[in-house]
Amino acid sequence: MKERTITLDHGSGGRATHELVREVFARAFDNAFLGQMNDSAVLQVPAGRIAMSTDSYVVDPVVFPGGNIGSLAVHGTINDLAMSGARPLYLTAGFVLEEGLSLALLEEIVEAMARAARDAQVAVVAGDTKVVPKGKADKIFINTAGVGVVPEGLELGGQYARPGDVVLINGTIGDHGMAILCTREGIAMEGEIQSDSAALHDLVAELLEACPQVRVLRDPTRGGVATTLNEIARQSEVGIRLFEEALPIRDDVAGACELLGLDPLYVANEGKVLAIVPRSVAEKALDVLRGHPLGRDARLIGEVTDRDPGRVVLCTRIGGHRLLDMLRGEQLPRIC
């Protein structure tokens, strides 16, 4: 391509569009389905039930410690499928590009997206590109949709938590949101806070194989751990108690949250899974999580109770109790 920035011609559907698709997107995402260049991809799907998810990504900045908007889009959609126990198979990708976007930045984002998909063994099989005039978007927005297969007999959902169950998490809380915010605002902390953006499907598959008794899986993204657990408590009509002393929070993340007046329990994560399991299999589940690179810091952080149905309560270090309501308003805009 001669142009090194995106122009309105790249959204015209003509020669410039075809050059952009061929030299940037098709080259990075190359596979047999995409290579046909038809209006839709015809896919092979193994036996089981279909899981589908879609999400849009408008994160600012588009490049951040631990990833960029491209890898985040792949990881986020894969994780949404994995929370239903699905094995992710295929993704689509739609791009809204701002006129004037650097082609080098676009290539960096697309390459990261393609690398994340290859690492996850998921194919990007269809896509679309639109270009809007300068000032009508902010560099690049990405929409992804994903398809996966759920094995017969597997039932997971926020409605299945039961009193006596426990709450597990595979690692530290609030990393993604604080990495984004510190980068955006130019806040320097001791050490570099990195996004936890990662694809969780392999970790989830290992957990479900070893512990088919798992009742609920959720990734605590926008709204963080507290909001996600509130959703589960309301769906299952149970109470959930969190143990403050058990919460895994990095010192630099806790320091940044304190500096900015934020509660890490409401800060977004992009590589974390909350698992609600019967107490009888908790230790086995923790062993499985800790045996995976993405679960080395797994902890038991709470329990499900029949008290205060629909509510989440934090049991503090000093023996008190604090109600954790759902997030109100937008704490961290454009976090994913």
From TrEMBL:
Pfam families: AIRS, AIRS_C. It comes from the Bacteria. CDD domains: HypE. Signal peptide: none annotated. Residues 38-150 form the PurM-like N-terminal domain. GO terms for biological process: protein maturation. Residues 162-313 form the PurM-like C-terminal domain. Belongs to the HypE family. This is Hydrogenase maturation protein, carbamoyl dehydratase HypE.
